[in-house]
């Protein structure tokens, strides 16, 4: 069993600095991925995360035609619903860049009434993208971008929920989310922890208590603390100084 990767914490004095650094980080990950296998596989979560990616808009270094984008979790709603992570990402970022629509992998909205079929169909999307190219038991994303809630949840993996123990499925469904809407699908920990890179983004004073618990007291077992990519994967946190105010974990200077 491989050991988990070291956690690297970057903390910035402003959101603008964080967003610029994250853009540089993504471009480096993109280059390494394209050099290795001519594509860049990315998964993103919802919430405030897409807003942190707007520094990529108009950036000539982004090879949008090589991107294949999945959603680390999605609310079981139509794609034009205000709760949709797809809609948020489209409105914030993807509608403003030349990313081919066929390479943005949304849920099959004809299956909204059957959570198990919906999750299975999205898992098949991943299998189609990864199975012929990778021999691993789980897909190996080049980059997964996540946020964390005040309760320490990430994607749609919530504290104390039975999905935290899921070891086999790539995509799981949840119909009792403690945060509305209750019905969602989500990547499982095995998928997240097989990524080449996972980067969390967390900003604002409202995250300072939970970041302390995640980074300084991982033994509490919050879902975000359970994101530990297996070696040779890497785990990064991009946070602002307000969010990291209580964190004792060592910071690393970000270098372009």
UniProtKB/TrEMBL annotation:
This is 6-phosphogluconolactonase.
